[in-house]
Write a structure and sequence with these properties.
The structure holds two protein chains of two kinds. Helix content of chain A is 34%, strand content 15%. In chain A, α4 packs across α6. In chain A, strands 2-1-5-3-4 form a five-stranded mixed beta sheet, with helices on both faces. Chain A has two domains: 76 residues, Ubiquitin-like (UB roll), CATH 3.10.20.30; 77 residues, Orthogonal Bundle (DNA polymerase, domain 1). Chain A contains six helices and five strands. Chain A is globular and about 50 Å long. Chain B folds into two domains: 47 residues, 2-Layer Sandwich (Uridine Diphospho-n-acetylenolpyruvylglucosamine Reductase, domain 2); 211 residues, Uridine Diphospho-n-acetylenolpyruvylglucosamine Reductase, domain 3, CATH 3.30.465. The N and C termini of chain B lie far apart (51 Å). By secondary structure, chain B is of the alpha+beta class. The chains are: A alpha+beta, B alpha+beta.
């Protein structure tokens, strides 16, 4: 069975606020589109089997595992990746909280953790530790740094309330 | 992932017509099971027909029919939309509870009600809810009661080309879902939904057998006496139950009783 039928689909997708017209094969994953077509390598591929959440991005404002979404399914959608969340000079409150709380060790899971954390903060403005742990179920940290991650999400979520950055981006 | 062609029809009629012309097509909605399965080459459709543009499959509504309060949930409704729906919270909060128990947040943001029941995973949560809450599955041209819908492992009453347009639920007087959750996968090792109606109790079970089913002996015992201990004497034969590295058939049979008792206790408290 071949890797290509020759079919190409024209899609229009907004990534981090920038509109892209792209031609993709149907079996291109969203994460491949982001990393290899657009060079946005902040979104990581950990397990590639939808377990680990390292590839978490926002699709129309909701966290998804971009290794389990086809690029063609993002047609006419808004995608937000870690690169679009904040900048070095102006970190998103959740990024700042991860830094303040030392919520990363090797850092591989961090982009996915942060994108997921922003989504759960947007879903509920009243997150306790239990709700944060449940909300992070789809993200694995193999450095097992969960304790500081949970603290960071709590701090980041309250900073999002304080800075009025709770609204979903799409 | 192997190669396939992709189609996104904009009407139900077009989707079914397309299905009939293609070699080995599959429908995709959220794709939370199908896409990982295709990546592992457990599924290899020649074509994917994306249902996401079908407006007929969207929305949650209350029907003003003879039953009074039927809730109709569109096949494309995502699990987090079910969990967050004000209409469902008001009339049938247990369905929101079931949806919130599925997988993880990313899966709930993407996976759909129609996709989950069409897939009929033996450990999926929603089938227990459909069985316990007198659900009717609406496809393009027929209505199938949940009791006749789940047939076997990944096997339903859907014919080739059928699409789950919506599911009608009868809100119970009172209901709760008790789930023994596999800590890694999030699937139900066993899940039991106990629902009380004016005409009796219904008990939907998932995770234990090849497909979800109603525990009729439990229902009879609870109709006699709605107390946790009422199910003590009920025999749950484990013949044909799932047995794997996570739990034996005997253990799953035991869990059905334990979870049913917990559910009854919760409903009485």
């Amino acid at each position: 069975m071949s890797d290509s039928t020759g079919q190409k689909i024209e899609i229009t997708v907004t990534v981090n606020g920038e509109l892209h017209g792209l031609s993709v094969a149907p079996n291109t994953l969203l994460v491949t589109l982001l990393r290899e077509h657009l060079g946005l390598t902040g979104t990581h591929v950990g397990c590639d089997t939808s377990q680990c959440g390292a590839c978490t991005t926002h699709l129309d404002g909701a966290a998804v595992k971009s290794c389990s979404v086809l690029a063609v399914q993002a047609d006419d959608c808004e995608v937000l990746t870690i690169e679009g969340l904040g900048s070095i000079e102006n970190l998103h409150p959740m990024q700042a909280a991860f830094r303040d709380c030392h919520a990363l060790q090797c850092g591989f899971c961090t982009p996915g953790m942060i994108m997921q954390a922003v989504d759960i903060a947007q879903q509920s403005s009243n997150l306790d530790a239990q709700a944060i742990r449940q909300g992070l179920e789809g993200n694995l940290c193999r450095c097992t740094g969960y304790q500081n991650i949970v603290e960071a999400v709590a701090e980041g979520a309250s900073m999002m309330v304080a800075t009025n950055t709770l609204a979903r981006e799409a | 992932m192997h190669a396939f062609d992709y189609h996104r029809p904009t009407s139900l009629a077009d989707a079914k017509a397309l299905y009939a012309t293609l070699e080995d097509p599959m429908y995709v909605s959220g794709g939370m099971t199908l896409i990982p399965s295709m990546k592992q080459r457990l599924a290899a459709p020649s074509d994917l027909i994306d249902l996401s543009s079908l407006s007929e499959l969207q929305g949650i509504a209350q029907l003003n029919d003879a039953h009074g309060a039927t809730l109709r949930v569109g096949g494309l409704t995502r699990h987090n939309e079910v969990a967050d729906s004000a209409l469902i919270q008001q009339h049938m909060p247990v369905l929101g509870q079931v949806a919130a128990a599925i997988g993880d947040n990313q899966v709930r943001n993407r996976g759909t009600l129609g996709g989950s029941i069409a897939n009929a995973d033996p450990a999926a949560d929603l089938p227990a809810a459909l069985l316990a809450m007198k659900a009717v599955v609406n496809t393009q041209d027929r209505q199938t009661p949940a009791d006749d819908f789940f047939l076997d492992l990944f096997e339903t009453a859907l014919d080739a080309g059928d699409i789950v347009v919506s599911v009608d639920f009868s809100p119970p007087l009172q209901a709760v879902y008790e789930k023994f959750r596999h800590p890694a996968s999030g699937y139900a090792v066993v899940g039991v939904l106990v629902a009380r109606y004016a005409d009796g109790v219904r008990v939907g079970v998932t995770g234990a057998g090849p497909c979800a089913f109603r525990a009729c002996a439990m229902e009879e015992a609870l109709n006699q006496e709605f107390l946790p201990q009422a199910v003590d004497a009920v025999d749950i034969p484990d013949a044909g139950f799932n047995s794997d590295m996570h739990a034996s058939a005997e253990y799953r049979a035991h869990l059905i009783k334990v979870l049913t008792k917990r559910a009854v206790q919760t409903l009485l408290s």
